[in-house]
Amino acid sequence: MAFRGVLRNVARRLQVRTYAADAPKGDEMALTFAAGNKVFYDKQVVKQVDVPSLSGAFGILPKHVPTLAVLRPGVVTVIENDGKTNKIFVSSGTVTVNDDSSVQVLAEEAHPLENLDRGAAQESLSKAQSELNSAANDKAKAEAAIAVEVAEEILKAASG
């Protein structure tokens, strides 16, 4: 019993969490952001990354708590060291924040917002909704529902 208490105390001391607000000045965060169609960042040092995840959108700064999350369709915003903001739509994927402040965003598909076509997004949404309404089985319904969600998010992103 005493051994367990000592072990718990040691474990608590080892589980010190630090947050971005506690990050010492000068810390850097290296971002790797890639999709099947393009590599957007390759270990480039950036100030901040905002990601849409299934558990909610969140921002990442240097010294963020190590995290693994699933991306939902939406916009990843990267604030570069010079202050430039880069917005990229992702369909799905994962984001990993490591102890060393490195971040990996791996997207199934990703496109800069300026490349999104609002008209094509509206067409895709209409087609996906039609497929959802006429789906004959659960698999077809699930695939169509995913297509509707992605098309809705593309339309939102393309609209501003």
From TrEMBL:
Primary residence: mitochondrion
Localization in the cell: Mitochondrion inner membrane
Keyword Mitochondrion among record annotations: yes
InterPro entries membership: ATP_F1_dsu/esu_C_sf, ATP_synth_F1_dsu/esu, ATP_synth_F1_dsu/esu_N, ATPsynth_dsu/esu_N
Sequence ranges assigned to domain ATP synthase F1 complex delta/epsilon subunit N-terminal in this UniProt record: 31-110
UniProt keyword list: ATP synthesis, CF(1), Hydrogen ion transport, Ion transport, Membrane, Mitochondrion, Mitochondrion inner membrane, Transit peptide, Transport
Domain of life the protein comes from: Eukaryota
GO molecular function: proton-transporting ATP synthase activity, rotational mechanism
Listed transmembrane segments: none
Claim: Amino-acid biosynthesis is one of the keywords in the record: no
A single Gene Ontology CC term: mitochondrial inner membrane
Family the UniProt entry places it in: Belongs to the ATPase epsilon chain family.
Name of this chain's protein: F-ATPase delta subunit
Species for this entry: Trichoplusia ni (Cabbage looper)
